[in-house]
């Protein structure tokens, strides 16, 4: 009897504690269904139910944890992403390394520009994502020579932690590659390569062949002589972009164009009320941004990477060298540019076929005049200084592009 009473009391103690814990949780309103929590074990999950004896937590691994309410009250439980009077968002870290050839300021600027210029799904706009240099490599006997960097961003959809971090890593990788900044290689890695002049020349020729093939399939350049296409190829600068990145913005000033050699992009225009409208999707091989490089006009549309894309950038000075040798190329370029410009106008103004044809002729004549004014006259010969500059440009294949 007395023993039985003690046994029953002890057996009911835990149950009573859990029930009282459930009542306390309901009354103090500290944890709600839908909250993301981190348990003392380090496991994270979403609260799916709060019952009298226990609380149910569902993890990202598709598991369910049943937590006694007494444990919730007796331990330090972290409620993720919550701050008073603030939206739900949780800080995340993405780490990467870059060697000491590149200054921290340069790396940080490149990464932050890429992260903040185009929104990434589930990444908060405020606080904005940022990049920090938080340490230097601590290799043995100087075996490592790189700086440690991290991107800090605030996750707005706490269930999508890994996919969002992956998207941030892709954005960082593409931005660094576009800027000509490689990720660091561990000092213990051993590379065996024939780095002789012949090997470099073969590598150069393969890259130039890849570029010239792309130019041959673009109507704007198909009628050029092989030597002229080679001049353009030698002046092309790699400019890769990740899915969702804005490659160029409507109304921005940029005196270069992009040659698309891989992937697809979306051409969008901003109409009344600032609402963007999809004009078309463009696949490789193709070219866009020709108005800026040929006439100096601001961008008439925004171009967004619909997939991961491989682009090359051609600046005004490269075109100037080619046009000096082939001034008749202006006629071909004007026709292509006029046709593209009218396609955009047709979306905004609803032009019929006859109006489009008439507008193309008008635009072509105007463009001829604008190109000649923007580039100036093309002399029959070049000075020795210009020739030297051209010779240097012909060897350029891998400079950073913005």
The figure for the number of domains is 3
The best one-word shape is: elongated
Order of helices and strands: HEEEEHEEHEEHHHHEEEEEEHEEHHHH
| Helix-and-strand structural type | alpha+beta
CATH structural class of the largest domain: Mainly Beta
Measured on Cα atoms, how large is the radius of gyration?
Answer: 30 Å
Tell me the CATH architecture of the largest domain: Sandwich
Number of helices: 12
How does the major sheet shape up? 5 strands, antiparallel
So, the CATH homologous superfamily of the largest domain? Jelly Rolls
CATH topology of the largest domain: Jelly Rolls
Q: What's the helical proportion of residues? A: 40-55%
Low-confidence stretches: 379-400
DSSP strand tally: 16
Could you walk me through the main structural features you see in this protein, from its secondary elements to its overall organization?
42% of the residues lie in helices and 22% in strands. The chain is α+β, with helices and mostly antiparallel strands and 402 residues long. The protein has three domains: 1-79, SH3 type barrels; 90-179, Alpha-Beta Plaits, CATH 3.30.70.380; 215-375, Jelly Rolls. A five-stranded antiparallel sheet has the order 4-3-2-1-5. Strands 9-16-11-14 form a four-stranded antiparallel sheet. Strands 10-15-12-13 form a four-stranded antiparallel sheet, with no helix packed on it. It is elongated and about 85 Å long.
């Amino acid at each position: 009897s007395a023993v039985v009473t003690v046994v029953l009391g002890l057996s009911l103690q835990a149950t009573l504690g859990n029930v009282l814990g459930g009542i306390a949780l309901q009354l103090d309103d500290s944890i709600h269904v839908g909250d993301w929590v981190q348990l003392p074990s380090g496991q994270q999950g979403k609260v799916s139910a709060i019952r009298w004896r226990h609380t149910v937590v569902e993890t990202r691994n598709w598991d369910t944890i049943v937590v006694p309410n007494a444990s919730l009250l007796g331990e330090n439980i972290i409620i993720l992403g919550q701050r008073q009077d603030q939206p739900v968002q949780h800080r995340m870290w993405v780490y990467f390394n870059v060697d000491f050839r590149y200054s921290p300021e340069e790396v940080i600027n490149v990464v932050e520009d890429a992260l903040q210029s185009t929104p990434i799904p589930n990444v908060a706009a405020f606080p904005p994502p940022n990049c920090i240099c938080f340490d230097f490599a601590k290799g043995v006997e100087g075996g490592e020579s790189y700086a440690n960097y991290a991107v800090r961003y605030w996750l707005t959809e706490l269930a999508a932690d890994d996919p969002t971090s992956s998207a941030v890593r892709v954005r960082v990788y593409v931005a660094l590659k576009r800027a000509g900044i490689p990720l660091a290689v561990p000092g213990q890695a051993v590379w065996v390569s024939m780095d002789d002049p012949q090997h470099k020349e073969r590598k150069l020729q393969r890259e130039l062949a890849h570029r010239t093939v792309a130019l041959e399939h673009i109507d704007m350049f198909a009628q050029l002589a092989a030597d002229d296409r080679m001049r353009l190829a030698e002046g092309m600068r790699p400019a890769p972009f990740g899915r969702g990145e804005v490659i160029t913005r409507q109304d921005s000033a940029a005196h270069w164009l992009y040659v698309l050699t891989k992937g697809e992009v979306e051409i969008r225009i901003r109409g009344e009320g600032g609402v963007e409208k999809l004009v078309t999707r463009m696949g490789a091989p193709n070219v866009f941004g020709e108005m800026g490089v040929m006439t100096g006009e601001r961008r008439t549309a925004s171009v967004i990477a619909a997939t991961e894309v491989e682009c090359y950038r051609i600046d005004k000075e490269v075109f100037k060298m080619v046009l000096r040798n082939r001034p008749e190329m202006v006629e071909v370029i004007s026709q292509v540019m006029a046709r593209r410009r009218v396609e955009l106008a047709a979306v905004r103004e609803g032009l019929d076929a006859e109006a489009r044809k008439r507008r193309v002729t008008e635009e072509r004549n105007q463009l001829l005049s604008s190109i000649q004014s923007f580039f100036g006259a093309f002399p029959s010969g070049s000075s020795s200084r210009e020739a030297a500059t051209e010779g240097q440009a012909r060897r350029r294949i891998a400079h950073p592009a913005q």
